[in-house]
Amino acid sequence: MGHLSTHVLDTMNGCPAAGMKVTLQRVEGSQVETLKSLTLNQDGRNDGGPLLDAATMAAGRYRLLFEVAPYFRARGVALPEPAFIDTVALDFGIADSAGHYHVPLLVSPWAYSTYRGS
């Protein structure tokens, strides 16, 4: 049974990005549908489990929006206006609806990286 999950680590402070806001969208051509908006828990993950579970997982194009600048400002980091990184938008595809897709984000106010995890 497939599912989609995410996990965000704050590399500036060396901790999970608790409190970061994340939005999951489905992208079909020029149409964008917001599927879920959430705030990450103390472990930098979604409290409600997978973002998509076996019942809602479908092949297609998706986007995760990570609200990076608001997260770091809330932690007291002085950022310029506009911030170098405001929102990280990660566009990715799900080819196998029965697969396990994990999209981690490692982030600071000045850099980020991601990969397909397991």
Key features of this structure:
4-stranded antiparallel sheet; 1 helix; 118 residues; 6% helix; mainly beta
Structure described in brief:
This protein is mostly beta strands and 118 residues long. Helix content is 6%, strand content 46%.
Strand content: over 45%
| Number of domain modules | 1
Radius of gyration equals 14 Å
Spatial strand sequence of the major β-sheet: 2-1-7-8
For this structure, what is the CATH class? Mainly Beta
Shape: globular
What do you see in this structure?
The chain is mainly beta and 118 residues long. The protein contains one helix and eight strands. The longest helix is centred in the middle third of the chain and has 7 residues, at 68-74. The radius of gyration is 14 Å and the shape is globular. The two termini are 14 Å apart.
Give the SSE map.
Layout: E1 3-10, E2 15-16, E3 21-28, E4 31-39, E5 60-67, H1 68-74, E6 87-94, E7 100-107, E8 112-114
